[in-house]
Amino acid sequence: AAADLVTETEVDSVAITTLSAKVGERTVPQLHYAFVGNLALLTSSSGSPKLLSSLIKQKKEQSLTSAGWYQKLATKLPNDADLQLLANGSFAESMLAGQDAKLVELAKQGAAFSFSLSSSALAVKCFLALDEQNAKMANDLASGVAPADMGKLLPADTIAAMKMQINVAKAIELALGMQPDAKAQMEKGLAGLKKMTGEDVEKATLQNLGGNLLLGLSVSSAEKLNQLIASGGNDMGAISSAFRFLLWLDLKDGPALQRLVDKALASAGNEIPVKQSKAGPVRVLTIPTPEGPKVHVLFHKNLVGMCLGAGCTDEAAKLATGAGESLTQGTISAGKKAFFAPALLANYQDVGRTVDLVTGLDASALGSGGMAIKMGLDMAMVALKNLEELIFLLRPETGGVAFQALLTIR
Q: Could you tell me which residue, 193 or 262, shows the higher pLDDT?
């Protein structure tokens, strides 16, 4: 407060200390504070000793806890958070003045933020209150989705993953409502496919989706990454050896989709060069691409998947039948528990394994200036070496949506 003068006054039996500073010829109050039990109350120069005294003696119905917006937002934050920030609608609106009109409209109900730090994790939560219509829309998108045990479908060496649980019918309804012309185009396309296959295409595809989506990215080893980098990043064999991509969708009726695919392939004849095979009990359709990598489409009971990368079909088959080493096998970490909890959208990053892989890169594989690049990467990894997993979640809650981040520490 750059105080030149400290004064004490008593207002309604409350001792108030004022710190003042010289501004030209005047002495101007900068800060007022008072101690009440184990609390310290402070106000800037825009407040006054009388304000502090009135806060101490005000009735409960006059306090912030009785404000509707505060009651609505405070319950959305963890009680034991180290920091809580709450903004009512008018303040949030003024802070976003001049920004996108839709964003300003969304902020009219207020927002809340919390930060918590422990010896094992850093947790952040942001809750955005929404009006009744938008809150209902957000909750509708996440409602009616039957939970599926998707964790067992990703391998243990998954380095990054994304999960979605969404009411497909509501999502399509919302999307078509925003683009009226798209509805007519979609219906025309579905009608054409129905004529070609003789099947109810919409029922076998869009209406057949259970609403759970899971995708993951795996990296074989630092050695494979070094080989890929040394090849200039254009060797498809090296890319397939270093990376594996896996995607799964749950279905209400798996055989219905397979029947549709079979009829579509029969109608296409040799125009689509598809190779059919089996990986254990899993049916595999392999489709070559002009760029070189092969895309594998997988069918198993009420699951449909897609994978890329060397050996991905055998690995996917083991996971689908419960025989493979999965991301949720054994003792599951706090980060994985948070990732697989119900959420509209969730992202997972294995920070610890990312650090290990980057640390294992060979400077000679990085080409000219590789040593300097490697030194820079190693220095960056030192800052992350104690981190384990990073999880982002988006989930609807009563009255709005919550965005959460959890960073677990080794």
A: 262
Helix/strand/coil for 264: helix
Centre a 10 Å sphere on the Cβ of residue 266 and count the other Cβ atoms it contains: 10
pLDDT at 60 over 70: yes
User: pLDDT digits over 324-363, tens only?
Assistant: 899 998 888 889 999 999 999 999 999 999 999 888 888 7
How many percent of the chain have pLDDT more than 90? 51
How distant is the alpha carbon of residue 410 from its chain centre?
Answer: 21
Structure tokens at 312: 């991905």
- Distance in angstroms (rounded) separating the CA atoms of residues 342 and 147: 8
CA dihedral 196, 200, 204, 207 (to 10 degrees): 130
Task: For the chain, give the number of residues.
Answer: 410
- CA-nearest of 169, 170, 160 to 346 is 160
Kindly tell me the number of DSSP H helices and DSSP E strands found in the chain.
15, 17
Measured CA to CA, the distance from residue 82 to residue 115 in angstroms comes to: 6
Contacts of 23 (CB under 8 A, 6+ apart): none
CB 370 within 8 A of CB 363: yes
Beta-strand ranges (E) seen in 366-399 are: 387-397
C-alpha torsion 232→234→238→243, nearest 10: 100
- The pTM assigned to this predicted structure is 0.85
Give the integer Cα–Cα distance in Å for 204 and 256.
6
Question: Minimum mean pLDDT among 77-86, 193-202, 341-350: which range?
Answer: 193-202
Quickly count: other Cβ atoms within 10 Å of residue 150's Cβ: 22
In the beta sheet, which residues pair with residue 39? 36
